[in-house]
Write a structure and sequence with these properties.
Blueprint (H helix, E strand, L loop, with lengths): L7 H8 L5 E7 L8 E8 L18 H11 L5 E7 L1 H7 L1 H16 L5 E5 L9 E3 L2 H4 L1 H21 L8 H4 L5 H10 L15
Parallel strand pairs: 1-4, 4-5
Antiparallel strand pairs: 1-2, 2-3
Helix pairs in contact: 2-6, 3-4
């Protein structure tokens, strides 16, 4: 398979098809409720056959993301997920929680000599490169984003029946109008990030 020239793996694998690339991304940073979820994916050129449909998760429908997720989880591709729930976010702050989920997921798949790329965020792992708009530039980051998003979305859908008033199945914890109105009417649940000052003044 030929990657678009904008994909960083294309250049890496031209020189060494065996070179492993780790890409990491997180989802849920801006949510009012629920966890922040990080994922790291490790691939080399021989995984290319599995990556045909992988691109920026924001440009894929929920149905397509789910299909890719189901497919990838049945391949030999190595990935790891890390989670900070809302209580940890309230305790440590969203910035630190963001760093933790990215760092932990990368360290779970890292051995040695991988080239590591993270979407936008800078973390304290030597030789890690932060890519602006990384989902558009790296297949590994794009796939990490898909896996993180589907994993988090599935959790929010699963938990939504406990708090039906908040519409978590639809909004996934993001601050939609319906969600904000529910907070105003019913207050905060155990899933909400109280440190985000969500209650109306």
């Amino acid at each position: 398979m030929i990657f678009p020239h904008s994909m960083i793996e294309n250049e890496i694998w031209k020189n060494n098809p065996n070179q492993y690339v780790i890409g990491a991304d997180e989802v849920g940073r801006g949510c009012f409720a629920g966890p922040i979820v990080g994922c790291a994916v490790k691939i080399n050129s021989f995984d290319s056959k599995h990556l045909t449909d992988v691109k920026d998760s924001k440009k894929l429908s929920a149905k397509k993301r789910n299909l890719i997720y189901q497919y990838i989880t049945n391949t030999e591709i190595i990935y790891a997920i890390s989670i900070c729930d809302n209580t940890q976010i309230d305790k440590f702050g969203i910035q630190k929680s963001n760093e933790v989920v990215l760092t932990n997921s990368i360290k779970s798949v890292q051995t040695e000599n991988e080239q590591i790329f993270v979407d936008h965020f800078k973390i304290d792992i030597p030789d890690t490169i932060s890519l602006t708009r990384g989902e558009e530039k790296s297949k590994a980051i794009a796939l990490a984003s898909i896996i993180a998003k589907v994993s988090r979305d599935n959790y929010m859908i699963k938990i939504s029946h406990i708090y039906p008033e908040y519409d978590f199945a639809s909004n996934k914890g993001y601050g939609t109008l319906k969600h904000r109105e529910a907070i105003k009417k019913f207050g905060l649940t155990k899933l909400h990030r109280s440190s985000f000052n969500l209650m109306p003044k």
